[in-house]
Design brief:
Layout: H1 2-18, E1 23-25, H2 26-33, H3 37-46, E2 54-56, E3 59-63, H4 64-73
Antiparallel strand pairs: 1-3, 2-3
Helix pairs in contact: 1-4, 2-3
Length: about 70
Amino acid sequence: MREELINKYLNDIDNLGFDKTLTLTSKQTAQVLNVSVRTLENWRKDNNINLPFKNIGKSYIYTKRDVAEFLAKE
């Protein structure tokens, strides 16, 4: 059941126009999660939300799979 839910969220993310990429920027991730980029920044700083990310220079990226798994936990 959990894998079905993750796949549903992956499909939903693709339907938002992110079907040609494996990763999302902070802005894109915030859009998918329906939160502000600032909220996402606070989550990273506080480390109280378990949403894995990679730091690339001054940018942060998230895999679509990690975002879908995060949504499936909600």
